[in-house]
Amino acid sequence: MALLVRPLTSPTLDALSFEPLELDRESGPVAKGTVLGKEERSERLAALLNTHFRDVWRVVRRFGVPEAAADDAAQEVFIIASRKLDQIEHGRERRFLHSVAVRVAANARRAREVRPENAESPLIERIHSPGPSPEAALDQKQARALLDAVLDDLGDDLRTVFVLFELEGYSGPEIAELCDIPLGTATSRLRRAREAFHESVARLRLRLDRGVSR
Amino acid sequence: MSELTPLLLSTTDDLERSLLRSADSDEPGENALPRAAAALGIGAAAMSVVAGVAVAEQAALGGAAAAKPLTLLSLAKWLGVGVTAGVVASGGAHAAVVTVERYAAFEQREVALAAAPAPKKRGKASARAAETAPAPEALPAPPDLPEIELSPEPAAAPAAGFAVAPAPAALPTPEAAVGTALPPPPEAVAGPSVGSFSIEAPPVASPPAEAPPVASAPAKAPPVMSKAEEAAFAAMALGRGHDGQSAWSLAEELKRLDAVREALRSGRAADAIAYLDAYRKQFPTGALRTEAVVLRVEALLKAGNRAGAERQAEVLFRTAPEGRHAARIRELLAR
User: Fold this and answer.
1) Sign of the C-alpha dihedral, residues B53, B57, B60, B63?
2) DSSP state of A166
């Protein structure tokens, strides 16, 4: 079991090695796939995809996977889920998928390595804000790009906890379980993430206001 | 940490809220899901069966109306798909079909109200429209679903009905909509909250003086559409949705929901519900409509209408049981 929590180099293996929701205690790290028949598996997987693909895609995006890589990352989450299909409890599918997504996104970010340092500035400069209130003029896409820029500021650990709590609605204990960290760590990460978020948004507002007055 | 309120609901900073909310609208390209299905070796047949059920679910909870205006044709398909899914799948889909009916009733009420005269003229006509409307708690709001991606496979073709979106020729006249209304369901008559539906204009600036108390009696939606409902539903099919997208404005939506929040903070639950009704009418496809459901649950609870709150919650739980909004609602209900 100790082996299961060691990070491996392959994204897939890394994600597989994690024990989401402690469902693997009995069956070990590799899904046995003996419970469901082939057709049942296919149906369940199709249902999972139909219901959760968009959600998973969105969460890997928020975890910092760039748009160009998000399709692949989301797909990988489901490939991993397909291997562990028999172990996914009914009603806990979303949590399971998100726990895998945390790992897949971490690996995707590592693979990406080079993060554009100036991603924020050009974007903010491009925003044309005609009114006195910058936020009123933001369209959804711009707002999202800014959100991602702000999340980038948080760093990976804080970002993950922040996204899970603030955007995905998980509780502290759930996050601790999902990320395989102690509750105290999850709590303190969220606190720090919020502080960093407030600061980052404040900086953003300054720049937006400058943009308006220009 | 679990006791913390998510920032989205607690922050007073508009920019922070705008940013956090923007995450909800992000979605993959339309090819991403089919590609993933192919990569997983899932055949079109499996995907389309599931998608068929998904259509019913989505329709049942307002996802269909959220995307594009409905035509009568697409409406027929929409209901047809619901029935088909009900036959194909077992119990769950049956519930979905029932909900389609309830949703239909909800929509017809919205139309009757949309067709009613503006506030300055409101009175008899809108009062009658309100009377014909079931109590608000009885009906599911169109919440923001996990909006299930539909497979583009041929077998999922009914979904294409949602994309048919001709410009509406004309809105029904108030007289027509109200005139065709049949006697209201008994529980609607009994519910004093129906008056809140007469709020026609954005009530943000001036709260309605006559905001009525919220019904505490459990109300039930009529299981099938009456002739009047059908007429109004048809009118809805022709007339609604045209302003949803064009008039969309995140800032305006934010303002509306802020007014709701302010009302809740100062203990004016009835006002909050009236604001939510007005919000729902103006932004039937609003980006923040799921949040509006959460606020409605909170308002109903504050007004002492736990049954109504639970009905609202139930709709959201069924399709997005683990989302942020569902989590928030659970928290509210647990208090």
Assistant:
1) negative
2) I
Burial class (CB in 10 A: 0-12, 13-18, 19+), A116: exposed
Q: What is the pLDDT along chain B (335 residues), one digit of tens a residue?
A: 445 788 888 888 888 988 998 888 888 888 888 888 888 888 666 676 555 554 444 444 444 333 333 333 333 343 334 333 433 343 443 333 333 333 343 344 444 444 444 343 333 333 334 333 444 443 444 444 433 333 333 333 333 333 333 334 434 433 333 333 344 443 333 333 333 333 333 444 444 444 444 444 444 443 444 455 444 444 333 333 333 333 346 667 777 888 898 899 888 998 999 999 888 888 777 777 788 888 999 999 998 888 888 888 887 787 677 677 788 888 888 87
Cβ of B327 within 8 Å of Cβ of A169? The answer is yes
Contacts of A201 (CB under 8 A, 6+ apart): A150, B13, B15, B16, B19
Between vectors from CA A206 to CA A124 and to CA B254, what angle results, nearest 5°?
A: 80
Q: What is the pTM of this model?
A: 0.47
Chain A hits for B1, CB-CB cut-off 8 Å, are 165, 171-172, 175, 183, 186-187, 190
| Cα distance between residue B265 and residue B206, in whole Å | 17
Q: Which of A52, A147, A169 sits opposite B325 (nearest CB)?
A: A169
Query: What number is the ipTM of this complex?
Result: 0.75
Report CB contact under 8 Å: B15, A42.
no
